[in-house]
Amino acid sequence: NYLLGVGRADCTGPVAEIPLMGYANPKQVGGGLFTRLYSRAFIVADLDDTKRIVFVSADIGMVSQKLRLEVLKKLKSKYGELYRQDNVILSGTHTHSGPGGYFQYTLFWITSKGLIKPSLDAIVNGIVKSIDIAHQNMKRGKLFINRGIVENSQINRSPFSYLENPASERSRYSSNTDKEMVMLKMVDNNGQELGLISWFAVHPVSMNNTNHLVNSDNVGYASYLFEQEKNKGMLPGEGSFVAAFASSNLGDVSPNTKGPFCVNTGESCDNPQSTCPVGGATMCMAMGPGNDMFDSTRIIGQNIYLKARELYEEASQEVTGPLSSAHQWVNMSDVSVELNATHTVKTCKPALGHSFAAGTIDGVGAFNFTQGSVEGDPFWDEIRDQLLGKPSNETKACHKPKAILFSTGEMTRPRPWHPDIVDIQIAAIGSLAIVAVPGEFTTMSGRRLREAVKREFHSHGTPGMDVVIAGLCNVYTHYITTYEEYQAQRYEAASTIYGPHTLSAYIQLYRGLARAIATNTVQDLPRGPEPPLFNIGNLTLVPSLTADRVPVNKTFGDVLQEVRQQYRAREVAEVTFVGANPRNSAENATEHNFLTVEKYANTSDSWLVVQNDASWDTRFYWTKGLLGRSNVTIEWHIPHGTEPGVYRIRYFGHYKKNTHSVSIPFEGASSTFEITAL
């Protein structure tokens, strides 16, 4: 028995004009909202409440060091020493459709246009709020674990790198991806269902880099389906049941199961270079199972959800035993690794290889600075000068065979380009060990790490541990490939920033944490060097908010393009309003809802909200016009089984009269329309 708490809070942030984080494509800027982003928090405490563990999975690209340090600072001021760097795990789902701009290291400023305070604040506040809710609702309860195979939901996107691993090792596995889902179920002692955490390795990149709507991608849709099922009659984002679909060793795992094809000619480009005969690598894109990216997101999300539901219903193996957590800060650019009794190797200062700029079949690289657009900006001029800095011979030799593109570890202006100090962390809940890793481990890297940690527990008297990898935790350090995969220098290897022995170093370090937990000597672990927290204000190229304007004889919220009078299920109701910048709303409130779909209730002569902007069936598009004007288009993709009746769509926004004035709320509504039976 444990004390258990779960919580969920909005962490969406600004949905317009902010670069989306993941594909590193500067053109991929937010232009509306498809599904909301949430932070989901789970607290486990022992019954005498001497030990606690917090696991958070947030619908964001990854957890950055800045984000983690800001969250820990807030938790400390609220709860003192209760929630600390050793017992709080923050994990990102790795959606590529969330706002960026929450990083303190310079490399990430390039594609997300600097540090964007409203984006950072929304995520920090959302994570802290989700932990607050879990903290306030602790109940006695039980944990159950289950595991099972998910089919038809992933492919290995670097199969040629995977084949570099020893044949003897590969022969132990039936697939070049990890198909196993691990699911942790939480129920209180009165039998009330609290929530679940699922760990499964897949990139949430069903939505590709042409998408401009903020959303949580395939794993977010799995959460949505589970929560909608358990929180009956509630709108999305409401209700007490919390379902997190967290990331794992997804480094080389794509959901785009049809594999890579040349966009221009339609032929396969499943070759070691992922290139097309015409147009080269930029034409090679992987396709999902659906007829468009929304459909692919639905299919993959539903597959993951259905397996989780089955594992949840059948879960019978109870998790019992003590809680413990171990954490260290490590300077990853300077770790000595003992490969065997006679052979010691070292990690390197961070650097990115040429293939990093090429991107992957899920999103082609876009690190091409356009000429002219950065002229005369001292910040970018400084960066450009830095870029011309050559990697030292020492770094070149250390990273071999990587051809270094950015020697980020030797670039320190205007701030360091990459972290040196990295979090390593394991939390044990009875027989379950959650290994929190700071990046994207490939399939085989993850297998080696899990095995090493399990063996370490076993050899110190704790056999039979369930070891699960939680990805994208605490600080982002790109990819971690095996030494053999590193030799092939595809995207994942070029992005293994601490050199060829990165994985061996992590295995050595995580074994140390496992040993400390198994032998009950966690208190003797050195803390390690504290990471820096750079005090950076809003340092960004995102345009500042200006006054919103309306067309002649119109006002905010007026309808420009009306709905039809009648629809059937599976059609799309669409309305366009005179709009204002959605960032005005984000700065007003974290939980601002941009739209509702409402059904008329005859009996009470009132309108009932049936959908909101977090609903899977609604899409909110913002289009910027000239001179401060903008339009908002709301689509409702009327689902099968919608009750016939009279409906309307409403829009809620905020406008600014001038640059420095407060935002003023307004709303608009479509005409009523009828939904008829098929």
TrEMBL record:
UniProt keywords, alphabetically: Hydrolase, Lipid metabolism, Metal-binding, Sphingolipid metabolism, Zinc
Top-rank EC class of the record's enzyme: hydrolase
Catalysis performed (reactions): an N-acylsphing-4-enine + H2O = sphing-4-enine + a fatty acid
Neutral/alkaline non-lysosomal ceramidase C-terminal domain mapped to chain residues: 511-675
GO CC terms: cytoplasm; extracellular region; plasma membrane
Gene Ontology molecular function: metal ion binding; N-acylsphingosine amidohydrolase activity
UniProt keyword Hydrolase, yes or no: yes
Coiled-coil stretches: none
PANTHER family in the cross-refs: CERAMIDASE, NEUTRAL CERAMIDASE
Protein family membership: Belongs to the neutral ceramidase family.
Protein name per Swiss-Prot or TrEMBL: Neutral ceramidase
Species annotation: Podiceps cristatus (Great crested grebe)
